[in-house]
């Protein structure tokens, strides 16, 4: 039987795993909805606050630009209150332009803060730090 802490950890891990495919596919609504309504995405020191702003950033990706997010070493710690959590995820990402041979490879780490909402677990904060 799964304990409440294990279920919370699995839910947060599932959230982390959903992020990359939504980003890679340019699914702006789905990606924005992984956050709380006032969630913060700190992209290399550039704060993007709220679902609408996050949605605009993803939807505004230039045509022909592609990404491939590969996340690993997901570490989740559930707080004693059972309603908040923190996490760290290693990121290896490739980014390129259709028809262009050059591919950028990026290594980074996500630092996450999660909160349990009426919609389920969501990112309250997701910060990207280069490694």
Automatic annotation (TrEMBL):
Limits of the SnoaL-like domain: 8-127
One family name in Pfam for this protein: SnoaL_4
Family annotation (InterPro entries): NTF2-like_dom_sf, SnoaL-like
Source organism: Panacagrimonas perspica
Protein name per Swiss-Prot or TrEMBL: SnoaL-like protein
